[in-house]
Structure formats: C-alpha cells, structure tokens
C-alpha cells in the first residue's frame, strides 16, 4: 500500500485539528517543516501570552507553557509600526493576555492595541516576587480580570534597591507610574470585570478606584473572594472580617450590572451575605419616590451568590478568572 500524503494547502482544517493534539514541546519541530504549518503552530502557541518587564523599554514574552519560539520580547523603541508588524504573526491569534508585574511609565502599553485585534481576556496579575502590578488597563477586551495587591503598583521592597530605576523613586509622581495621557479606567467595551481578592478583606476600591466608574458596557461584575491555586477545587482565606466585606460590597452594587459573589461559602459556614447586605442597606438613606424597601430590593436583585463550582458552569475557563499565575505542564 502506498503512502498517503496530506497537504496543508488542500486540507488545512485537518492539519490544524492534528496540531491541536500534538504536545507543546513538539510543535516547534512541526512548524519548521513549512510556512503554512509555521503559521498554524504560531497561532496555537500564541493563544495565551504573558508579558512582563525585562529591561529598559523591553517586555519579556512567555506562555503558560514557557517560552514562545520566535518571539522573545517586544521592544518599545525605534519604529513602533515595524515592531507591531513583527509581533502580529503571533499576537493576531492571542485571545488571553496577562500583564505581570509593574510595567513602568516609560512603556505605554496602549500602543500595543493594534497588535491584539482578537483579545478576549486581559488579566492584570502581580509579580510573584515583589507583588507589583501595572495599575492601568491598556487594551480593549471583553473580560477584564484583576488580582488584588495590598502593596499597590510599586514593589515597595525594591524602592531602595540598587537595581531599581531611580526614575521611579518618587512614587508620588503619577507620571512615573502611568504613561502620560493614559487614564487608569476600565476600557470601553468591556463586558465583564472580575476582581480577585485572593483571600483578603481589604476594601476593593482602595486599590482599584476606577471600578466605581466602569462603563455601561459592563454587564457582569464578579468578585472572587478566596485565594485559588491551579488544579485545586477549594481556596483559602487569609483574612475574613465580615463587616468590611459587607460594607465594601454594598458600596459597589449600584449599577444595572449583575454582581456575582464567588466563594463566600468557603469563608464561614452559614454566612449569609445577602442577609448582611440587606441589614447594611437598611442603615442607608435613599432619595426619590420609592420606599426604602423597594430601593433595597432593587439593589439586591442584582446580586448573585455562587460557589466556585456553580460559577464554573457559566464560564469557558474558570482558571482564567480565579487563578493568578497559570503555569501548565507541557
């Protein structure tokens, strides 16, 4: 029996189905065989990218599985249009983007927007070493995922370190933290905002003031309370002060969006969040023609309490919304 040859140009859909089942470590070798396969391999490898500060005006590029062959970094100097054209072979296919750690004000991440036309989820994650993060959300997306950080946008432990750029020593100067002309707001067009409290109970708005003024496009606002790790069903709480959590959550519920509170069942057995929220709202003064009870009911009609397992049924990938640092086995 003769050998059958499957040409990529004739059957790209079959080839791409086969590629989706090839181990990540072997994809590079497959992509080296022809230009068509190289583009398909790049598309698979680039679906979820992680950007982090490298040195100066350069960002390191990785994936949850490690290095991305063909794209080591993104450089913010020289001809930016040429740089965007270079990286688009990969970033055209990116649907999930993590920005990890503190990207300084010398790098304007909003300039990357043309290179990520198909971005669905943007995740602002902290550096695992110094807990720093980038305090603005530069790219249009459908889902914005934020992870709480009690230290703010600057790596406090490194402020006086020899290798820390002296341009950032004055943290009162906002221009040194956020690029000039950039407003730290939830981007227009975002449909869902997810805030991860990582098992702590500090008021959300103390660290993300812009979430009080998110655009009308946001229809779902999710607060994930426990700290979750990859592959583990249950999370952890490091601090759980019920009055703080109740007051903070009540302050947030004030638009037509639906508010989903995830994981409170893991904090305290029998803790009834809706009952506590109703009691807190009962202390408020409301204006207008409606009675206080009607106003309270309207607000609470927009609140849903879910376990992690219940919430997972409504999302495509629960780990993207609940686990900060995703490093998968090859």
List keywords for this structure.
24% helix, alpha/beta, 9 helices, elongated, eleven-stranded mixed beta sheet, 2 domains, 16% strand, 330 residues, single chain
Describe the 3D structure.
- This is F-box domain-containing protein.
- There is one protein chain.
- The protein has nine helices and eleven strands.
- The protein has 330 residues and is an alpha/beta fold.
- It folds into two domains: 8-45; 47-322, no CATH class.
- Strands 1, 2, 3, 4, 5, 6, 7, 8, 9, 10 and 11 form an eleven-stranded mixed β-sheet that branches.
- Strand 2 and strand 3 form a beta hairpin.
Largest sheet: 11 strands, mixed
Kindly state the percentage of residues in helix.
Answer: 10-25%
Number of domains: 2
What percentage of the residues does DSSP assign to strands (E)?
15-25%
Q: Indicate the low-confidence ranges by residue numbers.
A: 153-175
Put simply, the count of helices is 9
**Protein structure class:** alpha/beta
Gyration radius, in Å: 22 Å
Q: Helix and strand string, N-terminal first?
A: HHHEEEEHEEEEEHEHHEHH
Overall number of strands: 11
Q: What overall geometry do the principal axes of the alpha carbons give?
A: elongated
- The overall pLDDT, averaged over residues, is 83
How widely separated are the two ends? 36 Å
In short:
The chain has 330 residues and is α/β, with parallel strands linked by helices. It has two domains: 8-45; 47-322, no CATH class.
Sequence-ordered SSE layout with sheet pairings:
Elements: H1 12-19, H2 24-31, H3 35-45, E1 48-55, E2 58-63, E3 66-67, E4 73-75, H4 80-91, E5 96-100, E6 121-125, E7 143-147, E8 192-196, E9 220-224, H5 242-252, E10 258-262, H6 273-281, H7 292-300, E11 303-306, H8 308-312, H9 318-322
Parallel strand pairs: 1-5, 5-6, 6-7, 7-8, 8-9, 9-10, 10-11
Antiparallel strand pairs: 1-2, 2-3, 2-4
Helix pairs in contact: 2-3, 5-6
Protein name: F-box domain-containing protein
Organism: Apiotrichum porosum
């Amino acid at each position: 029996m003769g050998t059958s040859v499957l040409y990529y140009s004739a059957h790209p859909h079959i080839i791409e189905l086969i590629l989706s089942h090839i181990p990540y470590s072997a994809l590079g070798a497959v992509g080296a065989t022809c230009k068509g396969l190289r583009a398909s391999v790049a598309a698979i490898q680039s679906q979820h990218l992680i950007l982090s500060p490298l040195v100066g005006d350069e960002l390191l590029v990785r994936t949850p599985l490690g290095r991305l062959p063909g794209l080591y970094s993104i450089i913010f100097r020289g001809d930016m249009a040429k740089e965007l054209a270079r990286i688009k072979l990969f970033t055209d296919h990116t649907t999930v983007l993590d920005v990890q750690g503190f990207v300084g004000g010398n790098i304007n991440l909003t300039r990357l927007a043309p290179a990520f036309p198909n971005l669905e989820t943007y995740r602002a994650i902290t550096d695992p070493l110094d807990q720093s993060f980038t305090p603005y959300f530069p790219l249009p997306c459908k889902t914005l995922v934020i992870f709480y950080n009690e230290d703010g946008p600057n790596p406090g432990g490194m402020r006086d370190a020899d290798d820390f750029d002296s341009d950032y020593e004055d943290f009162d100067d906002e221009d040194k933290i956020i690029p000039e002309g950039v407003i730290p707001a939830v981007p227009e067009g975002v449909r869902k905002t997810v805030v991860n409290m990582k098992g702590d109970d500090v008021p959300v708005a103390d660290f993300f003031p812009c979430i009080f003024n998110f655009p009308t496009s946001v229809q779902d606002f999710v607060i994930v309370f426990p700290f979750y790790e990859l592959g583990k069903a249950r999370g952890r709480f490091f601090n759980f002060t019920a009055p703080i959590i109740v007051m903070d959550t009540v302050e947030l519920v004030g638009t037509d969006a639906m508010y989903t509170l995830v994981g409170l069942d893991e904090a305290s057995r029998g803790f009834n969040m809706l009952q506590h929220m109703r009691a807190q709202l009962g202390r408020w003064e409301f204006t207008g023609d409606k009675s206080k009870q009607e106003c309270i009911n309207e607000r609470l009609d927009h609140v849903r309490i879910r376990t992690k397992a219940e919430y997972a049924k409504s999302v495509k990938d629960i780990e993207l919304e609940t686990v900060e640092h995703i490093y998968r086995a090859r």
